[in-house]
Amino acid sequence: MNKSKVDNSYENKELPHYINELLALIHKHNLGSMRRYRKNEHIFHNNDPADSIYIIQKGVVITYLADQEGRERIRRFFSVGDILGHNTLFHGGYIADAQAIQPSKVIVIDKTQFLQQVESEPKLLIHLYRVLEMTHRNLAIHMGDSYYSAETRVLKYLLRLLSQFGKSTTEGIVITIPVTHELLAKYAGTTRVTVTRVLSRLSAVNILSTSPRPWIVKDYDALVELCEQACLDHTCIVGSGYGYEQQKTCSK
């Protein structure tokens, strides 16, 4: 795990070249229209007809799935330059819910028009395939995390939020989106109680501050080391010492 300091505020996100080229082609062929979404407004629902592709211009969007008991699991956070809906390009329905968790501006691209334009501009599909490849990589990592204990997943997904939304300041690394215990629990696939327990221990040893908001990681290296050790040992973090005594083996 990379211990280099994080400064990846989504507001100043540097986009990959293929995203910039895709946006240029969309503008050239007048394929998209701008739409605004309010905080907590859904962009689409699971199984809705997949008639559009979406590119985030401003704000943050999550995709999630709910199980039979209604428990939601966040699959991914999307920010500036990220694309969603593209994994249903040749399918009839969306495979998750998408919801803005901040006021957001989104380019909406009609899927039929996009596919028609591909015939004369094949680079559109090539660039979109690059995005799809990264989506599959992220999904594989997401699925692999399910083998870790709930406490370890909280650490891993906290670091993932830092990687995507962290901004270095004199106080530490600030998570620049309004994270809550419930949101992190849905992302890590665990309970709010577990998240609260882990974050309380991080706060007790001055690794993390969650109050007042925004959340600030004050000792990034210590957080990385704890996560690395937990991943290697496949153990739950229990106790209240700095090293979180590795006392209890977790089932996979």
Describe what is shown at a glance.
The protein is α+β, with helices and mostly antiparallel strands. The protein has helices spanning 17-28, 111-118, 123-144, 150-165, 181-188, 192-204, 220-233; strands at 32-37, 42-44, 52-58, 61-66, 72-78, 83-84, 97-100, 104-110, 166-168, 173-175, 208-209, 216-217, 235-236, 248-249.
What do you see in this structure?
The protein has helices at residues 17-28, 111-118, 123-144, 150-165, 181-188, 192-204, 220-233, and strands at residues 32-37, 42-44, 52-58, 61-66, 72-78, 83-84, 97-100, 104-110, 166-168, 173-175, 208-209, 216-217, 235-236, 248-249. The chain has 252 residues and is an alpha+beta fold. The strands form four sheets. The chain has a four-stranded antiparallel sheet. Strands 2-7-4-5 form a four-stranded antiparallel sheet.
Number of DSSP strand runs: 14
Q: Nearest-angstrom radius of gyration?
A: 19 Å
Name the average pLDDT: 85
Number of distinct helices: 7
Low-confidence stretches: 1-9, 235-252
Order of strands, widest sheet: 1-8-3-6
Question: Alpha-carbon distance between the termini?
Answer: 21 Å
- Helix-strand topology string: HEEEEEEEEHHHEEHHEEHEE
Structural class: alpha+beta
The major beta sheet can be summarized as: 4 strands, antiparallel
Overall form: elongated
Strand content: 15-25%
> Helix fraction?
25-40%
Helix and strand topology:
Blueprint: H1 17-28, E1 32-37, E2 42-44, E3 52-58, E4 61-66, E5 72-78, E6 83-84, E7 97-100, E8 104-110, H2 111-118, H3 123-144, H4 150-165, E9 166-168, E10 173-175, H5 181-188, H6 192-204, E11 208-209, E12 216-217, H7 220-233, E13 235-236, E14 248-249
Antiparallel strand pairs: 1-8, 2-7, 3-6, 3-8, 4-5, 4-7, 9-10, 10-12, 11-12, 13-14
Helix pairs in contact: 1-3, 4-5, 4-7, 5-6
